[in-house]
Design brief:
Layout: H1 2-43, H2 50-95, E1 116-118, E2 125-127, H3 145-169
Antiparallel strand pairs: 1-2
């Protein structure tokens, strides 16, 4: 069980690190793309050639490829996490110990009828919002890491498509 929890923690850490790396790569590529396209359009004195347009599309293609790789990597890591969470919940049910249910008892946090939790030794109380946008079942509370794994690459792909459309319409 401890090894499984360690694997889950390591996988989540790798997923966070990879998303930070992909995000940074996308920022660098989009900044390079904008500056490169600006440079090519200002340098060409006699008009744009087809080679110049081809060169403009290379960083756009590279950036979109990075975003697609980001989504694929995140999907694979999240499927592995889903499997490990499933295994952890199965082990917790087989242990039949009420104090070890780290993964299987999280549903009580999403019950809007319960506004607080008390520790088993009655020394600590946890209050959490249950209504509005910040509630556990609201817009902010229901966001999961996999939503960001789709949202950020999608935003970058939209940005690359906007740059592509901007370049194509200036031909």
């Amino acid at each position: 069980y401890k090894a499984l929890i360690s694997i889950i923690s390591d996988t989540e850490g790798r997923l966070r690190t990879s998303e930070l790396v992909y995000f940074t790569l996308n920022i660098v590529v989009i900044m390079f793309t904008v500056s490169f396209i600006s440079y090519i359009t200002h340098v060409s004195e006699y008009g744009m050639s087809y080679n110049d347009y081809g060169l403009m599309f290379l960083p756009i293609t590279g950036g979109m490829s990075i975003s697609v790789c980001w989504v694929i990597y995140a999907m694979r890591a999240q499927l592995k996490l889903k499997l490990r969470y499933f295994q952890a919940r199965a082990i917790e049910r087989s242990m039949d110990n009420s104090f070890v249910n780290i993964f299987s008892d999280e549903n009580i946090f999403f019950d809007p009828d319960i506004h607080s939790l008390e520790s088993f030794d009655k020394k600590e109380t946890l209050l959490y919002p249950t209504e509005g946008v910040t509630g556990m079942d609201g817009i902010v509370g229901s966001i999961k890491p996999r939503h960001f794994s789709w949202l950020f690459p999608a935003l970058f792909i939209v940005a690359y498509l906007a740059i592509f459309i901007l370049v194509v319409t200036t031909i």
